[in-house]
Each structure stands twice: as C-alpha cells, then as structure tokens.
Write a structure and sequence with these properties.
This protein is an alpha/beta fold and 260 residues long. The protein has a domain of 179 residues: Vaccinia Virus protein VP39 (Rossmann fold, 3-Layer(aba) Sandwich). Helices cover 35% and strands 21% of the residues. Strands 3-2-1-4-5-7-6 form a 7-stranded mixed sheet, with helices on both faces. α3 packs across α4 and α9 runs antiparallel to α10. The protein is globular. The structure holds S-adenosylmethionine. S-adenosylmethionine binds next to α4 and α6.
C-alpha cells in the first residue's frame, strides 16, 4: 500500500483508529471501516479498564482488538461466520490474548449468564439480527443493570416510506431493507421498555467515510469476497451522495430492576 493511500485512511475525527495499520484494517475487511465505527461508538460509551464487554458479531475481531488495546477492557469476541480459531490467531498476533476471548455464538442463543457484561457493543452487525421487537429485551438481559449497550450500523437518514429512490434501484439488495434511520432505532429501543437514555444519531458525512474506505479497499485488496461485494457499495454510496445512506449509532443503558 502506498503512503498516499495510507494517508487517505487517516481521519482526524478518528484519532485512535489512525494508530492502526491501514493494510491490517483492509486485510480484516468485513464491511465499512470497522475501526472508525467502533471509535465513534465508544466515544459515547463509558468503558473502564477491566470491564467485561461483549463484541457481538465481531467478524474478524478487529474491533475486539481495538477495544482491548484502547480501553483495557476484557472482551468476548463473539461471531457466527468467522470461527474462533481464526480469530484467536489474529488476537494473539495483536498481543491481546490476555484480554480478548474468541467465541462462536449465534446472537439468539448466547451462552452467557444474565447480567454478566458491563457493556455490549456491536459494529456493522446488529442489523442482521436485531431489528425485531423481541431482540433487545433478550440481549439486554446479558448486561448488568445500568450497563451500556451500543451499536453502529449502516443506516438511512430517514425511512424510505415513499419507496426506493430511483438512483438506488440498480444497487439495492433485499438485505439493505435492514438499514434504518436514527428515529426508527430510537423508537424500537425506547418502546422496548428494557433500556433508558436512548440516543440514536446519524454520523455527519458518514457516507464520505463509507465511500473513501470502500474505494481504498478496492485499490488494495486481492481477496475475492470484497472484490465481488464492494463495487456495488461504492456505486451505491457514490450515486446517493449523502442523500440517504450513512451510519447510525444507537446507545442506551439497561434499566435498573426497580425501573422495569
Ligand atoms: C458485516 S460483518 C461485520 C463484522 C465486524 N463487526 C466488522 O465490522 O468488521 C457482520 C458480522 O455479523 C455476524 N453475524 C450475522 N448474523 C449473526 C448472528 N445471527 N449471530 C452472530 N453473529 C452474526 C457475522 O458473523 C459477521 O461477522
């Protein structure tokens, strides 16, 4: 990777991520820049050293490594598609074997004690399994009362209630209907009754981060999966030019027992 490309992947608003090798980030690609999203998410969470954190849908565990390195938290790196043996090698190579435990887990069948975690985070994964009314009440049972839950996901500035805009039609996949607006997430989480202090926000100009990152991946990677999937994202985000697409962050804390 040349220096010019490396420089393009340094974002002043994500100073922690800037300390990570851009080639390493791209080699562990599973979607729009995971570390930028993790950094944005964690800036709104109170993560103290030693806290137990679940990184749900961690993919190749780049975000789990980031959490451990940056905040000194103890992370369970749980994922369905990427197996623990593969992630363990990466975690060990990153010097985080003492803090990060890889685990095979299905989001609806989690093998933890109730109230075990101090916080639960999920980067670019929650929309795959968490859009129904029943999921947050289930997931929140694994965080201690008062503990934080935070997700960062691809999303929409506003719901597409009038149908899919013409310029998105050539790129749209059925999966993309799991993209939602901050207002949609705010309503889903608020009315669940199991969390409070719900905040849902759209990352300002997040589409530019999405596009720059995806273009860089295409310039560098030889991996056939991103080579197949990313051109569609690049075309879509470029055509949209920030009108609809970007990233949504949702944060809340589990209610204390007396409040439920
Ligand atoms: C787009 S990848 C993102 C991975 C990682 N968080 C990142 O940002 O690089 C989505 C991840 O969600 C995980 N996932 C999807 N459905 C899941 C489920 N039902 N239970 C657990 N993980 C799931 C997949 O295994 C996949 O690694």
């Amino acid at each position: 990777m040349n220096d010019e490309l490396r420089q393009r992947l340094v974002r002043p608003r994500f100073p922690r991520s800037a300390g990570y090798d851009a080639q390493w980030m791209i080699d562990n690609w599973m979607g729009p820049s995971a570390l930028w999203l993790a950094e944005w998410l964690c800036s709104a969470l109170d993560l103290r050293p030693g806290a137990r954190v679940l990184d749900l849908g961690c993919g190749r565990a780049a975000t789990s490594i980031f959490l451990a390195k940056e905040f000194g938290v103890r992370v369970v790196a749980a994922d369905l598609w990427v197996k623990p043996t593969e992630n363990w090698a990466r975690i060990d190579a990153a010097g985080q074997a003492g803090l990060v435990t890889p685990l095979l887990a299905e989001a609806h069948d989690l093998p933890f004690a109730e109230g075990y975690f101090d916080a639960i985070v999920s980067v670019d994964a929650y929309h795959y399994f968490g859009t129904d009314d029943l999921y947050l009440p289930y997931l929140s049972s694994f965080v201690a009362p008062g503990g934080g839950i935070g997700i960062a996901v691809p999303g929409l500035a506003a719901e597409l209630d009038d149908g899919l805009p013409e310029h998105l039609v050539p790129f749209w996949e059925p999966d993309f209907w799991s993209f939602h607006s901050p207002a949609w997430w705010h309503r889903l989480w608020s009315r669940s009754g199991v969390v409070e202090d719900v905040r849902a926000e759209f990352l300002e100009d997040g589409w530019r981060d999405w596009l720059d990152w995806s273009e860089a991946v295409l310039e560098v990677t030889e991996n056939e999966v991103p080579r197949k999937l990313v051109p569609r994202e690049v075309g879509m985000v470029r055509a949209d030019h920030g009108r609809n697409l970007g990233f949504t962050r949702v944060i809340a804390r589990r209610k204390l027992p007396a409040e439920v």
